[in-house]
Amino acid sequence: MKQSGKGRVDVESVEGCHEEADTRTILHCVRTMAISIVVSARDTDILVMLTAYFHLMACHKTWMKAGTAKKRKFIPVHAIVEHLQMNREVLEILPCFHALTGSDTTSYLAGHSKKACWEIFKVHHNLLRGLGNIPVLTDQTIKDAEEFVCKIYGPAAASSTNDVRVSMFVKGVTNDKLPPTSDALLYHIKRSHCAKQ
Predict the structure, then answer these.
(1) Which domain holds residue 125?
(2) To the nearest 5 percent, what fractions of the chain are helix, strand and coil?
């Protein structure tokens, strides 16, 4: 129990053994019984997680306070969730998508904006379903994630980024625009898998 201006507050339910501030913020939002929440952050990772886990929160409205002291922005997370019109299972894949396409802890995919990757996610989100959701990363999850990256870079039928690299190289695409090799992508997928857990 801790003291606050409104008497005693039980904080045991929001205690955790990890130090990652982003996930602790979401834990607090999920555990509070407040009708509305304002999270002060300027981190896209937090916005993605607030959106992904809004359905677990008891509140009706959640805003993320961002911007600077001179130019404040209040981003309505509840409105984003409503606008996306995605079911909970798809929303919960958002942190995996964000990690795979570039976040605070993972690199971005060369030559492709988050917006371009989002268009692929809207159609092929099922390929990221296993990423970050199970303790052990399976071969099928790795294969599916690589296929998702192939779809971002080009040939719809390709399932290996090595094949996509060859296809793009013979068309004269410069090295800095090529996807990672399958070996390099494997480590990127592993980092993305851990980033979500």
Answers:
(1) 93-197
(2) 55, 10, 35
